[in-house]
Amino acid sequence: MSYNSLNIDSIKPLINKHAKYFMRFLDLLPANLASHDCTRGTIVFFAVCGLDVLNSLDLIKAKRQHIIDWIYGNIVIPRPEERCCSGFQGTRSVMIKSDNEELLENVRCFQWGHLAMTYTSIGILVTLGDDLSRLDRKTIVDGVAAVQRNDGSFSACIDGSENDMRFVFCAAAICHMLDYWGDVSKEKMYQFIMNSLRYDFGFSQQAEGEGHGGTTYCALAALELSGQLHRVNTNVLEGIKRWCIFRQVNGFQGRPNKPADTCYSFWIGAALQILNAFHLTDYACNRSYVLETQDNIAGGFAKWPQSTTDPFHTYLGICGLTFTGEHDLAEIMPSLNISIRAYENLKRLHSKWAYQNVEDGYQGTYRNMATQLTETKISVDDDDHDLITSPLIRAQ
Ligand SMILES: [Zn+2]
């Protein structure tokens, strides 16, 4: 029996097993996850960010550059005449190498960025300490703006998909991480989110749906990341807190009358962290439930005790445990779902970009002054044809 039959009441003795569990997904995709090949980037996200939260990133030091190069290899950049399909893909299965031009053009029709893959790819890069210098931030955000719908929601990709709160969160996370919002409408995003608030104060995927734990996290995280959480009325915030707190059974459930599930210790836990209300929950019951779902032989967490583990529930289970102050785990930033350590890397990049913008601004001002000076000289020497056409003067 590989389930927690030893009743281990701490994650500490199993940290190495959980780390090895994540590492296996970086080397191969198990047969039972083959259908997830097109979203392989998210599995790498759970593995890399999971190792980070376990303070075990050193274990993949030798693989670090390879993972970074693999992620950058998944970028799609539109050609000038193409639709705005920029972003990251989650797989290389449609990024083939061939000398056959026709084949390459045909495959090109199936290459487009996906918001969830773009969010997780950037999350992996900052977790690995990359400086994002191989990214054109504007091009990536143009791809995000291109999939925003009139109602403020977002599709996952330019080729069409569902449009709901999951992709609203991904869009907000990408723009926040790149510190650039371009043509993305925060106002429309806000209206979509608030239109999805239900009578019981849970958020649904879209208007008239059912309040849901994962969706409520996406809505609150998007509001915080877009700097709009303060716009929500205090009474409404209190109602949302109440809805979230009532989702605790021992661990947390995603909706009323559903059983507890490991991942909601993150979705609801992080939502309450964003609202500064997690302290109102029962830490011991939550922690005990999540620990019950760990596999003490092969590592990993499942959604329920005695169920099959998977990287999604393993990462979110571990993140959920960080909220209860579990020792030996790195703190995480709730609204981005990456470690505080990775978030600090990101903030350093934001400062660097802001400094570069100021520098560019100064250089732009200097260029404008030089241009005005050139034009003045040209007008003064207007009757001297040689001076006007001199490339040296134009280059001043
Ligand atoms: Zn789950």
TrEMBL record:
Cofactors required: Zn(2+); Mg(2+)
Domain Prenyltransferase alpha-alpha toroid: 16-338
Cross-referenced Gene3D superfamilies: 1.50.10.20
CDD domains: GGTase-I
Keywords from the named record: Magnesium, Metal-binding, Prenyltransferase, Repeat, Transferase, Zinc
EC number(s) from the headed UniProt entry: 2.5.1.59
InterPro entries recorded: GGTase_I_beta (IPR041960), PGGT1B-like (IPR045089), Prenyltrans (IPR001330), Terpenoid_cyclase/PrenylTrfase (IPR008930)
Catalytic activity, as annotated: geranylgeranyl diphosphate + L-cysteinyl-[protein] = S-geranylgeranyl-L-cysteinyl-[protein] + diphosphate
Annotated GO MF terms: CAAX-protein geranylgeranyltransferase activity; metal ion binding
Family from the record: Belongs to the protein prenyltransferase subunit beta family.
PANTHER family, per the entry: GERANYLGERANYL TRANSFERASE TYPE BETA SUBUNIT, GERANYLGERANYL TRANSFERASE TYPE-1 SUBUNIT BETA
Self-association and partners: Heterodimer of FNTA and PGGT1B. PGGT1B mediates interaction with substrate peptides.
Name of the molecule in the record: Geranylgeranyl transferase type-1 subunit beta
Organism: Glossina brevipalpis
Lineage: Eukaryota, Metazoa, Ecdysozoa, Arthropoda, Hexapoda
